[in-house]
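Section handout, structural biology tutorial.
Before the tutorial, make sure you can parse a SMILES string by hand: atoms, branches in parentheses, ring closures as digits. In the record below the ligand is magnesium ion, and the chain has 402 residues. In the tutorial you will relate the predicted C-alpha cells back to the input. Do not try to memorize them.
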Amino acid sequence: MSVSDPIDRMLDAAESGKSIIKNRNILHFTYIPNIILHRDSEQEQVTQSLLPILKQSRPSNLLVYGKPGTGKTLVVKKVLSKIQERVEKSNFPIKLIYSNSKDETTLYGLLVSLGRQLNLTEKELPSTGLATSEVFKRLLNKIDEEKLNAIFVIDEIDYLAQLVAKTGKDILYQFTRANERLKQGSLTLVGISNDLTFKEKLDPRVISSLGEEEIVFTNYNVEQIKKILEERIHDSFIENSVEEPALNLCAALAGGEHGDARRAIDLIRVAGEIAERQQSDRVTIEHIREATQKIEENKEETSLKSYPLHEKLVIIAIMKANGSSTGEIYSSYKNLCKVVGRDELTQRRVTQMLSEIEMSGIISGRIIHQGIHGRTKKYKLTISSEMIKKSFKDELTLQDII
Ligand SMILES: Nc1ncnc2c1ncn2[C@@H]1O[C@H](COP(=O)(O)OP(=O)(O)OP(=O)(O)O)[C@@H](O)[C@H]1O
Ligand SMILES: [Mg+2]
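Predicted structure of the complex:
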C-alpha cells in the first residue's frame, strides 16, 4: 500500500493522531456556558431590571455598557432565556427579541429582523420598499393588537447609531418613546454597547430615555480570566492537555490588555488547533505564542482583503516603493493602474486614501522637511510584503502585479 498519498497521510494522521480538543463547539463564541463566573452582580442587576415583565408591566429601558469581551451579550442572553423558560410555562403574552445591529447593513434590515421575530410575515412586513417610519408603525401595531409585552434587545447598538446617522436620527427617539403610542402592550428597549463614547453621538432626548437604567460591566482581571479559561478548558479539552504555564500566559495576554474573555478563549482554541496539527498532546507556551501571532495575522489579512480595488493598488504601490514620498507612490500607483487596465484616481484622492490607510495601522507615515522645497510625507509598510501578497493573491486583477 502506498503511504505517500498526501491526502491519505493527513487522514491517517487525523485518525491515529492525538486530538486534544474534545468538544470544539464549547470554544465557539456563540456557546453559552452553564456557569457565568464573576458576573453574579451583573446577572442580578439585569434580571432585576427586567423583572417587571413577569408581572406584565413595563420594565424601564436599559443600557448595558462595558469593554469588549466582558460578558455583556452572554449575561443578557442568559437572563432572556431564563425568563423565556418561565414565560413558556405560563402563557404570558411576552415577547423577548434579540438582534445584533452589526449583522444588519441598514436600519430597515434591523427593523425587519425585529418584525420577523414578532412573527410578522413578508406580506405584513415586506423586506424592502416601505418607509422606515411605516415599518416601525407596523411593529407597534403588532404589539398593540396582540397586547404583547415586548423586550427588544439591540446588541452593539453603536452600529445602529451609525446606521441611523445615515437615515435620519429620529428612529431611535421614536423607539424609546414607543410606549406613548401604544394603547395596549408595552415595549422595552435594551441596548448593549462596548463603545463607551457612543452616547455622545446621540440626541440627548434619546440618551435620557434609553438610559432610564444603566449597568456597567467592568473589565476582568488576569485572575478572573484564568478562572473563566479553566472552566472552559475543562469542558472542551481532554484532561491535562493544557500546561499550566500555557494557561497562565494565555490569561496574562488576554487579561493584561483589557480583560477580554473572548480573546482568551480564541487564543486557547487556536493554540489547541496548532498543537493538534503538530501532533502534540499538550498545549504549551510556545503554542500560545504561535496562536497570538496567527490571530494577529488573520486580522491583518481580513482587513487587507476588505479594501476596495484602488486602495489595494495604493498598498501595492507602497510595497513596491517602500519608504517613498507621496509623489513617488502616486507615480507607482499610476503605473499599476495602466498594467491592470483601470483608470487612475487623482493625486488628491490618493493622498486622502494614504491617510485613511495609515489610520488602520498597516502603513506608517513620516513628514520630511525639505528646506525650501517644503515638506512631503513618506510612507512605509508596517506589515510584511508576504502578508500583502498572500492576502491579495486570489484577486484576479492583481495577479500580474504582485
Ligand atoms: N463570566 C464569564 N464566564 C464564562 N465565559 C465568559 C464570561 N464572560 C465572557 N465569557 C465568554 O467570553 C466571550 C465574550 O463574551 P461576550 O460575547 O458576552 O462579550 P461582550 O461583552 O458582549 O463583548 P462585545 O462588546 O465585544 O460584544 C464569550 O465566548 C463568552 O461566553
Ligand atoms: Mg457582545
